[in-house]
């Protein structure tokens, strides 16, 4: 039996058992009552709205709930998953396609239980397993902010998921296995900033949603929090003691990186992380500081040690491409020519066990950040073959990163190119 069939059989069996238990009244659905009990609230204090806006920036609500060139918060952003494509929902106060008819209780139920007012289960691509740990006051503030945005009358596209993953009843079982709504108690042995950062990382900021590995059911591996994962075709590196960064992160450097998208000692944000830093650039600096304080406390204080290896002879093709194309911006040891940006030797991407991020950057480049900070880099998918991209990646890995070349670089380059060409 293939892995996919095993997954399907396991999920269907679990769903059947859960349906039976639910029918017998064994499972309480008190938190998932489907009928709205109150009317939507329409008047809010200005201070509450302002606090909600700040929270929305920390949670990056707009980045996932806004389609490319679409109306802000109107949904339609495509999220690739192992089971198909999920489109984000409209969370403007439009009464038909958005959340305009939701009460505060409805909103809290969706955020904490992943269930809409009409009883529809939300997919955990919307990280309600993190939002479940938010305080009521924060949920109320976020509700106030969203309900005072401009309504957009637009319906998000239908999800494109393989059977049986398009059956939302399966999420009842997923929630039993992976949903943890327990509050995050402050630690008296740490500072207020550390505790605030811990709360945000484990709830609203949902850092582990990308930076934690997942199992075959796409639930997070419980004992591997922040050890690295996959997000939208990119590797999300470990941001704890298992970080592979060749230069250890400090709290100050993390704060700079999170608020600007670049740090002089480590490099520029790329892929989904670029979207995160764009949002955090406008978030309250106190919250960005708190996240940096907490994450820095988890990171190693010394660089990782790697086994020595014998350098190979440089590939002529890769060397020619690097010196002919990359040298326009990168000089010896690959610093940006102007000297304003860090050397590629400090890049975690070249240290990762997978060539995925290095290849993604070579394929797609680095877009101009919304903040205006950080370097711009064009992609080379249109002028280099997948094999040439893999050769350049390995050349940089060995001669700049100081690591043994990746054995799967060519296969990865071909796979990523196919993924990008078939992206929704």
Account of the protein in words:
By secondary structure, this protein is mostly helical. The chain has three domains: 29-178, no CATH class; 192-298, Cytochrome Bc1 Complex, Chain D, domain 2; 316-421, Cytochrome Bc1 Complex, Chain D, domain 2 (Orthogonal Bundle). It is built from 16 helices and seven strands. A three-stranded antiparallel β-sheet has the order 1-2-3, with no helix packed on it. It starts with a helix and ends with a helix. Residues 19-36 have low confidence and may be disordered.
Topology (SSEs and partners):
Elements: H1 3-23, H2 46-59, H3 61-64, E1 78-81, E2 84-87, H4 104-113, H5 128-131, H6 136-146, E3 160-161, H7 170-178, H8 192-202, H9 208-211, E4 229-231, E5 234-236, H10 251-260, E6 262-263, E7 267-268, H11 272-280, H12 285-298, H13 316-324, H14 356-364, H15 386-399, H16 409-421
Antiparallel strand pairs: 1-2, 2-3, 4-5, 6-7
Helix pairs in contact: 1-7, 2-6, 4-6, 8-12, 10-11, 10-12, 13-15, 14-15, 14-16, 15-16
């Amino acid at each position: 039996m293939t892995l996919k069939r095993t997954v399907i059989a396991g999920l269907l069996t679990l769903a059947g058992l859960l349906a039976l238990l639910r029918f017998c009244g064994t499972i309480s659905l008190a938190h998932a009552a489907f009928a709205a009990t109150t009317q939507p609230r329409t008047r809010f204090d200005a201070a509450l709205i302002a606090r909600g806006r700040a929270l929305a920036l920390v949670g990056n609500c707009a980045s996932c709930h806004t389609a490319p060139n679409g109306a802000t918060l109107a949904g339609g952003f495509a999220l690739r998953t192992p089971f198909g494509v999920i489109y984000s929902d409209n969370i403007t106060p439009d009464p038909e396609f958005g959340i305009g008819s939701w009460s505060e209780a409805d909103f809290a139920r969706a955020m904490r239980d992943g269930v809409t007012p009409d009883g529809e289960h939300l997919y955990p691509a919307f990280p309600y397993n993190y939002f479940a740990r938010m305080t009521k006051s924060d949920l109320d503030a976020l509700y106030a902010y969203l309900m005072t945005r401009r309504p957009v009358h637009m319906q998000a596209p239908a999800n494109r998921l393989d059977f049986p993953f398009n059956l939302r009843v399966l999420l009842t079982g997923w929630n039993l296995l992976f949903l943890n709504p327990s509050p995050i108690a402050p630690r008296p042995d740490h500072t207020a900033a550390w505790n605030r950062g811990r709360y945000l990382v484990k709830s609203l900021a949902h850092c582990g949603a990308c930076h934690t590995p997942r199992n075959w059911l796409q639930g997070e591996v419980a004992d591997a929090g922040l050890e690295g994962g996959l997000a939208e075709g990119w590797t999300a590196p470990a941001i704890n003691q298992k970080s592979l960064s060749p230069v250890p992160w400090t709290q100050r450097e993390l704060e700079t990186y999170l608020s600007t998208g670049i740090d002089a000692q480590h490099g520029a944000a790329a892929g989904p992380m670029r979207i995160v830093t764009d949002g955090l650039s406008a978030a309250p600096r106190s919250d960005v500081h708190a996240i940096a304080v907490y994450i820095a406390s988890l990171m190693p204080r010394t660089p990782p040690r790697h086994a020595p290896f014998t350098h190979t002879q440089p590939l002529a093709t890769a060397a020619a491409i690097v010196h002919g194309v990359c040298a326009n911006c990168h000089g010896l040891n690959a610093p940006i020519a102007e000297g304003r940006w860090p050397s590629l030797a400090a890049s975690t991407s070249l240290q990762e066990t997978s060539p995925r991020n290095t290849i993604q950057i070579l394929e797609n480049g680095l877009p101009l950040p919304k903040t205006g900070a950080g370097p711009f880099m064009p992609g080379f998918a249109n002028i280099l073959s997948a094999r040439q991209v893999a050769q350049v990646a390995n050349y940089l890995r060995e001669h700049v990163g100081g690591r043994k070349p990746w054995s799967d670089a060519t296969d990865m380059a071909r796979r990523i190119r196919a993924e990008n060409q078939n992206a929704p």
